[in-house]
Fold:
Amino acid sequence: MSAGIRERTRERCLNQLRDAIPEAMALMEGPAGELSLAEYARAMPGGGAALQDGEDMIALAEREAARLFSPAAGAALRRELENRFLVLTANHHGVDFHPEFLQGDLVFALGCRDAVPLFACGGVPCNNLAYPRGLLLPPRRQDTTKPGRFPALAVGDRHAFVSAQLPFQASHVRSALDSLPNAERSAQLSPDEREFAAEMLTDIYLHPSVLRRETFRDQMSAANALLWTRLTSRDLRLPPLASLEFQHLCGILVAGDIQRPGTLVHDLLLEPELTKAIFHTLNGARACWSMGGDIPPRGSFLFWGLDEKGRGIALYPDPECRTLFAPRRPDMRLELESRSLKNALLSRRLLPTLYLSFAAAALARGLSCAGGVFQYAYLPRMAEGTAEALRRCGDDARADRISARCPLGAGFHALRAADSENAAMDHAAGPADILRHGGISGQDWERFGNIRTRDAFSCSLAFQYEDIIPEKERLPGWLEALRHSSSLMLSHQP
Structure:
């Protein structure tokens, strides 16, 4: 491809991305793109306008981190949240083998002092792009940015929500270990990759702190925190990663708020006029729900129902917004009444949707949530829709105090590694590349923090394009046109 054709193709691809993710593209093409990654991470805003005190959320996060990791980790997370009421919510809950999520963790950590608060989404099926049922490796082909996969946990239903998946057992991991000798042919693993897979399975998935957890959700938190400690060399110590599941935390907050009249969650669940206004105002909005009329059905209203296998069942409101029901499950019907809701939440028959989770954490308590390229746009829209619904109900005072602070927290792929088969090509670095490099050193960390934010985002554009633009709409030569070099290439340390 000639330089002229490449440049024209690149601009046409960028225009497609500007149409698909206009807010994120405008941010990175504007003044914020001139900041270094360290400057950008440190400038992320803490808590914003709040309708109620966020201390109960801080206390809950501290308890969960102490339970899962250690009392010291819980205390560190409290200090971090008290200093800056901000968490990373861009990830799907699991072990962060995906470069999109891992490098987002690293960028976010540049702005953290005591702990790295990662509240990841568990209300997604286990077959999501983060692949919580296995390991992710560098791309298998040179015509794609998608990571290769190695299955590690043959457990449960791949359509079950991460939050409700069955815990894995040591036998599942040992079966994956036994399959490694044949993985070179079946999964196209190199000797280095087989060594990496064996290390992850043995030292992380079979670690006692992971295996003793009673839920898959907790196992993923423990495993992700262990991986984090292995990613740096001896001369660099990062704050501990507090990897918690967002919907689990918010479910506990919701169960408490429905007992407290006057809180936002209580009123939007138990005041039918406001419930109805919320439904109609945000019907069809991204990350909310689409129900009724000519709108293709998508999402669930306020809660997901969980079936016997842990799969999410979409719930719809009745016309008066006093009951939630599942059209294909006559037995799944729930009154919007405080005791019924609390019992269903605590018995894990319900899971808060993204909207309800953000309503409890961000809109009510003022938690700032650093998100991905879509969340950067849809969380403010959730705030706008909630304020509009409150105004429809004559509650201008609370409407004026509703807002959401959502810095862009993912989409920075500046940490790169050369492809094993073609040194002239590279890909976004994941854990396998970082460990092969010998871990991130203090010098690497300084160079990483000094990379310009726009350049770091440009390194992700090929991934964003392949992930967002439908295959039939992709332009010939898109991958070559969107490739962007980085000043930080990880070497292979023998």
About this structure: The two ends are 35 Å apart (CA to CA). The longest strand covers residues 329-335. Residues 3-20 form the longest helix (18 residues). The CA atoms of residues 262 and 268 lie 10 Å apart.
